[in-house]
């Protein structure tokens, strides 16, 4: 299954749909995960954490 994680669009919203650890779990379960550029930065997760 393909799973997409978009960046939040509301002003002053810092949440992200999934943490890097959650992405690892999904990938290990055989899913393809696509995270939008800068999606986790407001929550303290740079793009490099999702790679």
Condensed summary:
The protein is an alpha+beta fold and about 50 residues long.
Mean pLDDT: 95
> Roughly what percent helix?
25-40%
The percent range for strand residues is 15-25%
Low-pLDDT parts are none
Number of helices: 2
Give the strand tally. Answer: 2
Write the H/E string, N to C: EHEH
Taking all Cα atoms into account, the compactness measure Rg is: 11 Å
Return the structural class.
alpha+beta
Largest β sheet strand count, sense and barrel closure: 2 strands, parallel
Q: What is the overall shape?
A: elongated
Strand order of the largest sheet: 1-2
Q: Could you give the distance between the termini? A: 18 Å
Core attributes:
2 strands, 51 residues, alpha+beta, two-stranded parallel sheet
Describe the protein:
The chain has 51 residues and is of the alpha+beta class. It has two helices and two strands; from the N terminus they run E-H-E-H. The chain has helices at 20-28, 47-50, and strands at 2-5, 32-35. Strands 1-2 form a two-stranded parallel ribbon. Helix 1 (20-28) links the parallel strand 1 and strand 2 (32-35). The longest helix is centred in the middle third of the chain and has 9 residues, at 20-28. The two termini are 18 Å apart. The model has no long low-confidence stretch (mean pLDDT 95).
How are the SSEs ordered, and which strands pair?
Blueprint: E1 2-5, H1 20-28, E2 32-35, H2 47-50
Parallel strand pairs: 1-2
